[in-house]
Amino acid sequence: MSEVARNELPVVVIGAGPVGLAAAAHLLERGLEPLVLEAGEQPGATISAWGHVRLFSPWRYDIDAAARRLLEPTGWSEPDLDSLPTGAELVEGYVAPLAATPQIASRLRTGTRVLAVARDGADKSRSLGRERRGYRVRTVGADGRVTDVLARAVVDASGTFSTSNPLGVSGLPAAGEADAAPFVTGPLPDVLGADRDRFAGRHTLVVGMGHSAANTLLSLVELSEATPGTTITWAIRGGSARRLFGGGTDDELPARGLLGTRLKGAVDAGRLRLLTRVSIEQLVPGAESVQVLGTAKDEPLALDVHAIVNATGFRPDLDMLREVRLDLDPVVEAPSALAPLIDPNQHSCGTVPPHGEQVLSHPDDGFYLVGMKSYGRAPTFLLATGYEQVRSVAAALAGDRAAADAVELNLPATGVCSSDLALEADGESAAGSCCGSAPAEPQLVTIGVGAPAVVGFASGIVHGRSGDGDDA
């Protein structure tokens, strides 16, 4: 393929979430033709899956500048910039209207899942003339039809939510884990809402020690107070939950501190059973429940539960990129230049400096991982960071090197509060939140910006994995 032909092709954007749509908006402003491929039937499908979760950053950090410029002429009503949207509100008030703008709607294909990306006419091992070749993006539609799309460049904003880490030990699935899939709920079930019947009066095992696990556990505790027979077991791989309990009232993020304090109180009060040093080795599904076999503190473990919440974290889907030459960190699976800034083995509540195209580039020119997928296996991502990533990438693809390198990210120097828990920690009424009404606490939250003095955001792990010892 000649260079001229390559430049006549669109830039394929994988994923129609906030970051993917922002990429399309920036590409359009640069005079480049985007084609957005979304696996879901609607834009923002992944966010809709956790629509009950309240973001930890207010609207002012959730709206991309180029996207705003597309929306304003349509009569779009800007939300209260200081209010705190749920995932459902983010889709309804921003993602869906942005995808419906004439400029993006005509360039969006929903129900289109990407199977693979490769250089057109060259496998991974072929170097001769590689830089002149565009990309071949293989897709499958809802009807099962496989179609190849040619692109001058590819921006992968497909995220990581669909690829949870397995329940088994050593990063591997437990024996029988695939067969037990009907009993695994996903990392953020709507315990007090749409999924209530799945948990009420039943035994649930929550696996994981992040904030998603904590929020689910607290929701289950509330459910158990209203519905007798609701039983909760919490399994962690470490020897202590101290890291998640955090600093309580001394925590720099009020909602996070309150989250840890309440969870510790629930454990101390015996409202849930905490198992430490757990290794899940086998899952044996039955008609109504699944048996969980393994060890806890080197003693045999055998649980019979009705549901398993796999709050085990996420990993990027790299199988679709086997034919692309990537430069990924062997630990985090993020771009090598970005990985040292976000590695949870090294960082706790440290900050991530603004970064753009140079940090995100790979040996195959014109291919980029952006948004949550650019973070690989590292936890916690802020939308504003993704927006700056794609602004820089669009500038680079348009040949504006100066704009691509002029990376800026304006965030508050202190934590951004975003949940009813945060409002309560500040002594305010949840009734004054963005929704106008206050869902029953505790509220699910995602952790956002946090470190003082410099621009960036917390890793979401209170002390970082580097602090883990035998009892942590």
From TrEMBL:
Superkingdom per UniProt: Bacteria
Keywords recorded for this protein, A-Z: Oxidoreductase
InterPro entries in alphabetical order: Auxin_biosynth/cation_transpt, FAD/NAD-bd_sf
Keyword Oxidoreductase: yes
Record keyword Oxidoreductase present: yes
Xref: Pfam families: Pyr_redox_3
PANTHER family recorded: FLAVIN-BINDING MONOOXYGENASE-LIKE PROTEIN (AFU_ORTHOLOGUE AFUA_4G09220), FLAVIN-CONTAINING MONOOXYGENASE
Protein name as annotated: FAD-dependent oxidoreductase
